[in-house]
Each structure stands twice: as C-alpha cells, then as structure tokens.
C-alpha cells in the first residue's frame, strides 16, 4: 500500500492500524512522487491511499486520480477527504476512487474500507472492459 499525504507524522495511527492488519505501508509526500513510485515499480503497490488535505487544490487531486485510474486501473484507490464529495456510491464516483472516506476516519473503518475498495475496483474494471467492448 502507498499512502500519500503531505507530511510524515500525520498518520501514525492509520499506518499502525493497517500494518497490524497485515499491510505493508509505504509513504509518498506528494502526488508526483506517488505516481513515480507506481510507474517505476509496477506491482509493488496494489492500493493507493490518498489524504487530500495539504496536497494542493482538491480539483488537481481529483484530476490526478482520474488520470491515474486510466493509466493504472488495477490500483485500488481510497481517498480521504475533509468533506465527502460522494454522498452515494455511483458509477461516476468510481472514476475517482474506489472508496472515499471523511478525514479523519477511525482506523478500524479504514481497514474495512480496504476490503470494500477491492470489490469496487473489480466492479469498475469489469464495467470499463464491457464499455470498451460495446464501443467497438
């Protein structure tokens, strides 16, 4: 798992909780560093956890996530955001992230969200494949 946040000390409880659930958690401190890590080391991270606070304008973070999903659809994406952008899980929202959570999120909920995000990612990829086939 790759955790993107703007500073190294802001998420010790999340990292500890995820690690105790069996996840290896690496960190990146900006979006470009996370993209570089994902591209240069394919397969090293299958989950991207993004804390939007402090990463810059939210619209830029959302553009980044949308582009990342197109380039690397197999990466499971979880977005932590101060305010929920997605009130319900609809198909449009899956383009941005597999799960969005309000920040802060209790670590126990974060661990459950990882499982849900994996299912949502599989659904999103199947939908993209079906859409591509129907366009041909």
- The span between the termini is 35 Å
Proportion of β residues?
Answer: 15-25%
Rg over alpha carbons: 14 Å
Q: How much helix is in the residues?
A: 40-55%
Structural class: alpha/beta
- Following the backbone from N to C, one meets helices and strands in this order, namely EHEHEHEEH
> Helix count?
4
Topology, number of strands? 5
Low-confidence stretches: none
Short description:
The protein is an alpha/beta fold and 136 residues long. The protein has 4 helices and 5 strands; from the N terminus they run βαβαβαββα. The N and C termini lie far apart (35 Å).
Which terms summarize this structure?
4 helices; globular; 5 strands; five-stranded parallel beta sheet; 15% strand; 136 residues
Describe the structure in your own words.
Helix 1 (12-20) packs across helix 4 (107-135). This protein is an alpha/beta fold. It has helices at residues 12-20, 31-40, 58-71, 107-135; strands at 2-4, 26-28, 47-51, 76-81, 99-102.
List the helices and strands and how they pair.
Layout: E1 2-4, H1 12-20, E2 26-28, H2 31-40, E3 47-51, H3 58-71, E4 76-81, E5 99-102, H4 107-135
Helix pairs in contact: 1-4
């Amino acid at each position: 798992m790759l955790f993107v946040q703007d500073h190294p000390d802001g998420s010790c409880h999340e990292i500890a909780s995820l690690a105790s659930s069996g996840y290896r958690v690496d960190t990146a401190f900006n979006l470009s560093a996370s993209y570089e890590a994902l591209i240069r080391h394919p397969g090293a991270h299958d989950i991207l956890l993004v804390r939007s606070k402090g990463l810059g304008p939210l619209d830029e973070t959302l553009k980044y996530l949308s582009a990342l999903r197109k380039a690397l659809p197999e990466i499971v994406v979880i977005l932590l955001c101060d305010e929920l952008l997605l009130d319900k899980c609809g198909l449009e929202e899956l383009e941005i992230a597999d799960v969005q959570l309000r920040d802060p999120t209790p670590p126990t909920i974060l661990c459950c969200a990882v499982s849900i995000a994996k299912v949502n990612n599989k659904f999103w990829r199947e939908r993209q494949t079906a859409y591509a086939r129907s366009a041909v």
